[in-house]
Amino acid sequence: MNKSLKLFLLLFLIGIFPAWLFAQSNFSTSIHKTRVGKGYWYNANTPAPSPGFETLTNVPISQLGCTECHPGDNLDANGNPYPIPYPGMNCNDCHATNTPPFPGPVTEDDCYGCHGRQKAEAIGLGYSDVHRDASTPLQCWDCHKKEELHGDDGVSYNSMLEPGAIVADCEDCHTSLPAGHSSYDPHNGALHCAACHAQTVISCYNCHFESQVQAHLKRAKQQLHNFVILANRAKDGKVGTMSFQSLTYQGNSWVAFAPFHSHSITNQGRACADCHNNAVVQEYNSTGQIYFAKWNSNDSTLSYLQGVVPMPEDYQAAFKMDFLTYNGDPNDPVGPSKNWSYIGENTWDGHQMFFATPLTAAQHAKIGMNPPTGIEPEPSNEVVDNFVLAQNYPNPFNPNTTIEFRIPNKTTVTLKVYNLLGSEVKTLIQAENLTAGTYKIPFEARDLTSGVYLYRLITPEFSEAKKMILMK
Q1: Torsion angle in degrees (nearest 10) through CA of 164, 244, 86, 24
Q2: 43 phi/psi in degrees, rounded to 5
Q3: What's the Cα-to-Cα distance from 172 to each of 142, 143, 176, 256, 292, rounded to whole Å?
Q4: 388-470 belongs to which CATH class?
Q5: What is the pLDDT of residues 355-400, one digit of tens each?
Q6: CA-CA distance, 451 to 472, in Å (whole number)?
Q7: Predicted pLDDT of residue 187
Q8: Mean pLDDT, to the nearest integer, of 409-414?
Q9: What Å distances lie between residue 189 and 239, 360, 420, CA to CA?
Q10: Which of 71, 305, 451, 471 has the lowest CB atom count within 10 Å?
């Protein structure tokens, strides 16, 4: 074949398939193809401070049936059965490749095959959404462009929640705020749109992990909705909506918190009283706790908080939820059941908070919450006349220790924990204005691996670091 003919054929193919060729150039690195999100949440080797639930189960993800999971039922977008074992995602998982023009059409049912919470919002629970309910309804790909879906930036992300993995956002279409918006939104851009305009987030409460391990069945106590948890998003530093995944296994409990963008958006945003000094804030102020979910053993029902739930800075001590286990056979059919019981724990044995941080003490004050517990000065007649960072105690420790420091005057204080590579693994206090006194800060390292860590106290006038040893 001469060079002219080769060039002609190449140009002809590019002319026919330009979008397909370029859209697929980096598909191998896309989240859709790699599907590494499950493992990043679960695996024990996920980097600190968030190793996964495998640290408690010692069951590798390859034995759970998760990596073999494919969209929807047993048929691909062409209506053909998936091969066994499932080879991983390809074009025909989403595209009906047997329907021209290539690569074939996509339906929202294809998206819902994997994105079950969005399906639950729209279909199972019937939540309204201004985008779905518009005279010309928006569909998934109207916001999530093919460049995002096919991973065109060539970056292998650990999770769809990692900054950069999902680039679609409200401002893509809403390039300016409506007239008068600033008069009823005094937050000056500190809140993501969803914090006010999302009706709900969703969680399947308390998965029974024995059912997943033994029978590859996803069994949860029930679906929770009609609430939103507010936290700071790593993606843009704004306050946004967050949900969680909780589970138990052999008497151990686990919960993972992460941002969640609901597709239940309303035109009318929340009123001030929905967040400021609401019932959850008042509970925290009176008890020092936010008891999110409570089990009633008399009738085997679960009650949980509704509306806006601020995630407090001291959430590891303050946020409570009753952990449950299924009393039946792990091979039982999955469905509504009261055959559950309380395992006697309302705090977790391990947890993660991915791509988000709790509200700060300054944010507590803005919505009427008391300062987070654990950063009040200890009552003492001692006169503090200089800065002191004491050795943590006990040391070595497993998994709890206390870090004590003293400051002689009101100042801005930051206290962080680092590994020996210099990577931050925990922020205990972030730029808080504290009065003079002695402070004792609890530190729980259940999610960290054994080793030597550094904790550093930073103020405008003083900075010092000390070593501590975690021995498990």
Answers
A1: -10
A2: -65, 145
A3: 11, 8, 10, 29, 34
A4: mainly beta
A5: 999 998 889 989 999 888 756 676 666 778 899 999 999 999 988 8
A6: 9
A7: 86
A8: 90
A9: 9, 17, 36
A10: 471
- Report phi then psi at 54, rounded to 5: -60, -25
Cα distance between residue 181 and residue 469, in whole Å: 51
Domain ranges of the chain: 28-128+144-168, 189-373, 388-470
Q: Which residue has the higher pLDDT, 1 or 295?
A: 295
Does the N-terminal peptide bond of residue 87 adopt cis geometry, omega within 30 degrees of 0?
A: no
Q: How far apart (Å, rounded) are the C-alpha atoms in residues 294 and 291?
A: 7
Distance between CA atoms of residues 174 and 19, nearest Å? 26
Average pLDDT over residues 73-91: 86
Determine how many CB atoms are found less than 10 A away from the CB of residue 261. 22
Task: Give the pLDDT of residue 10.
Answer: 47
CA separation for the pair 154, 30 (Å, rounded): 7
Strands 301-304 and 307-310, bridge-based pairing: unpaired
* pLDDT band for position 421 (cuts 50, 70, 90): confident
Percentage with pLDDT > 70 across the chain: 92
Structure tokens at 47: 């980097």
Q: What is the length of the chain?
A: 472
CA distance 36 to 57: 19
Residue located via tokens 């493992």:
39
Tell me the one-letter amino acid at 397: F
Strands 350-353 and 307-310: unpaired
Q: How far apart are CA 137 and CA 197, in angstroms?
A: 18
Tokens (6 digits) for 359 = 């509200």
CA dihedral for 77, 78, 81, 87, sign (positive or negative): negative
pLDDT per position as a tens digit, 176-186: 887 777 767 77
Q: Which two tokens stand for residue 326?
A: 């299924």
Nearest of 201, 184, 146, 143 to residue 356 by alpha carbon: 201
Q: E-assigned strands of 159-250? A: 201-208, 220-233, 239-249
Cβ proximity of 169 and 207 under 8 Å: no
Instruction: Decide: 37 and 159 in contact? Cβ < 8 Å.
Output: yes
Report the pLDDT value the prediction gives residue 362, as an integer from 0 to 100: 85
